[in-house]
Predict the structure.
Amino acid sequence: MKIKFYVALIALLVSYVPVLSNAQVTVYLSIPNPATITRVSAGVPTFSIADANVLVSRYNVTGFTQLYPSHRFEFMQHVYALQCSDAAFAVALKNNWPAAFPYYELPIIPQNLAYYPNDWGYGNYGYLNYIGMPNAWDISKGDTGTVIGISDNYFDMANPDLQHYKVKRLTYNVSPNYSWDFGHGTTVAGIASGGTDNHYAYPGVGFNCRLDLVGIKSTDVLASMSDRNCAAVNASWGTNAGFDLGYIFNTTVYDQTNLQYAYENGTLTVAAAGNGQTGSPGFAGQYFTPASLDHVMSVTNVGWANARNGSTNYNVQGAHECYQGDSVNHCYQHNTRVDICAPAFDLGAITADSADTSRHYLPLAGTGTSFAAPQVTGVAGLLHSLSPCISPYQLEWVIKSTADTAILNYSENLRYTGRLGAGGLRAGVALNYASSNLSSLCNNPATQTMFIQGVEFNTICAPGYSSNGVVPHLIPVITNGTAPFTARWVPIPGNEATLNDVKALQPTVTAATGGKLLYYHLTVYDSDPVAQKVADKIIRIQLDTAALSDFAMRDSYVDMLDEPNSQATVDARNWEIWH
């Protein structure tokens, strides 16, 4: 059972940063020392560095907001959203005064992943038979105590499938600016948990679960829905992020921290893997965020309607390509971060009509990974309803360990080997497995969440000094993982230490400057063949040559070391510190 901690995370602030009409852009800026900011007047900051204030005027700064003043990760408390005429302002601050402005990041611009064909009302719900929903519903139809969160755009609340008990919470439901964007959120919500057994429209996957709907697309929305006890949250949006996964992890610190927060808080995040780009060879092989980040189930597409070796090569059962043999047109994302495949072509679903002033529904033949993801989210809701003690990793493990692996060996899918995840979603098999293993599922050692118990540190000597002649060496202690392990050390703004290898599990410290603060976000991956485990810990060590040194190692309030969790209190200082 998840323990609720009332941590004052300032939710949704990123999404409410105003977009100014005079070509202003938003940047996220890390300012570790509050003394750097001497005052803020009408959204314009004054810094303690005189020359920096010249840049404030030059780049026409018109907005300055502290995004997470009470965030439980200390470095996030120093993040500010700043509106200016050009992102070059943040580059100039970092280049000229790296100690005061060590890090900046540009927010992602969400893109919808679905397109609506002209043949409205053509789609059907045969894809639900393909993934085995009738068998799943025989075991669980969901429960009103299980809440599914949807971060998207406008939701048509006139639709009967989203009325009555169905929606527990609705926030910021503003009509979008573009007609093609109008029905996206309605469709996603309807597939995940639309009203069913009501003689109306189409069935939803987790149809007795309730919905928490937020008409904004951002990772801090996902974190805030986790605070409201959502068992699973859905993000059918994102942005193409290129082919360099290391670069992606190092430039999405804030998004990754929000996703880690939701995961450690007991919420599974599911995201659409991306829709590629028609006519662009190789484009679909790149990564997509937030789907490709840690602690997210990334869902790509598979066909469902037509038999293999039949009269058509379109929407063939088990085929990743929209048209068999065509890897360029209508080919959706496939990469090493994809976790599972689900139907994504011509899906019967509900939507809203922007041309209809009453905003009533239209039947839709929806296509896109936007609509594959909520199928997985809905199945996660059914599993949680069946066994509320199950952790996010265990939800992922059950869904992936019961997937249809046969599709991975289909001839047309072999070119995507290693990039289609565990295989095809099988909802009925997943629910049957969970039902048959209820007594042991939550405490099954094979599915226990991996945890970085701590870091062994062999010396307090800062590199470059000779008090004991020992080079500092970091050795993470890992519980519940399958060796061999791989690691990633990402420096947090304020870090003053250098590691010999940021991809080594046990690196050495080769240099330290200034205050000699080692401040890293450590991520460890195991070799679990079903659903790779991921563990995070923030490491903060004050390197010193004296007899005293602070060792601060921070994970989370809900560390999942012992499922169900039993941590009831934490150090009031938010860190585990030994002197």
The chain has 13 helices and 27 strands.
